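Before we proceed, please read the two lines closing this message. Tell me what the token row says about the fold.
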Amino acid sequence: MSITVNKKAFHDYFIEEKYEAGIALQGWEVKAIRAGRMNIKESYVVIKNGEIFLIGMHITPLPTASTHVNPDPTRTRKLLLHAAEINKLIGKVERSGYALLPIDLHYTRGRIKLEVGLAKGKKQHDKRHDAAEKDAKREAQRAMKERQR
């Protein structure tokens, strides 16, 4: 079940591979995500010292958060992947010029997971081409609806 999708990633990048990663979250963050109070649009994924981190994901704390916890809405969160997957990602990002992007935040068997995409940037003409294809597909759907009536 999807919580939120980063549509901007699909607009700006070609997503070539997807990986499902766990996220190291605190209790108040889980409650806020379940309430739908997060944003992954401006976030990105970096590799530091053989570990993968999510930077810039904003989780707005609930007003009923505990009094002894000082919530930081944009703290750096560690992503949990297998070592083989991390090594593969390190190789692709460093050698091939790929970027790592958060694509989708969702539930898997009651746990919150993040889908990370291995992506290459789109040029402006690629974005225009995709928009034209999308418009043509929409027009075709509209024409089929009119024909059925």
